[in-house]
Write a structure and sequence with these properties.
- The structure is a single chain.
- This protein has 4 helices and 4 strands; from the N terminus they run βββααααβ.
- With 129 residues, the protein is an alpha+beta fold.
- The chain has one domain: Orthogonal Bundle (Cytochrome Bc1 Complex, Chain D, domain 2).
- Helix 1 packs across helix 4.
- Bound molecules: heme C.
- Heme C binds next to helix 3.
Length: 129
């Protein structure tokens, strides 16, 4: 693309402006965004740290209310507030694995790529289970 700007009689050419810098593949939780191994590890954490206060029905409603939000925001929310009796007490990896387990239990598929809060999780959208 070439854009011509005229300023006070002079002509400045602005050529080849890159408009593609921020374009990024958008995924949803339907695209196999966690591995089976993560979900398996997540179940252990879930049973020990989450099960006493929430059942799986609760997460179905939660995911519905987070529809279209980036998965990273949910990760941050859970990390900052859960377990309610000891927020932030788990390792980052444990929070990530718990989310993988919750997604799996809600029927979303596992895949080849690991869920990673430092790598692309902001561009994975939650969809209603
Ligand atoms: C001691 C009880 C307790 C434990 C343990 C606990 N939670 Fe919670 N959780 C709560 C309460 C209370 C709320 C807020 C009220 C509600 O929505 O029911 C909540 C809310 C949530 C929400 C909703 C957040 C939102 O913004 O929509 C999620 C998701 C959640 N918890 C996940 C977890 C996960 C994952 C674990 C395990 C790591 C966990 N909780 C452990 C009590 C608990």
């Amino acid at each position: 693309m070439r854009i011509v700007v005229k300023i006070a009689g002079g002509v400045i050419l602005l050529s080849s402006i890159a408009f593609n810098a921020s374009v990024r593949a958008q995924a949803t939780v339907n695209d196999g965004v966690f591995t089976e191994a993560q979900a398996t590890s997540g179940q252990v954490v879930y049973d020990a740290q989450c099960k006493t206060c929430h059942n799986m029905r609760f997460y179905r409603d939660t995911l519905r209310s987070w529809n279209n939000q980036p998965l990273l925001y949910l990760w941050e929310s859970i990390m900052g507030t859960m377990p309610a009796d000891n927020p932030g007490s788990l390792m980052f990896e444990e929070y990530t694995n718990v989310i993988a387990y919750i997604l799996k239990e809600q029927g979303f598929p596992s895949g080849d790529s690991e869920l990673d809060p430092d790598n692309g999780m902001e561009s994975i959208s939650i969809v209603s289970p």
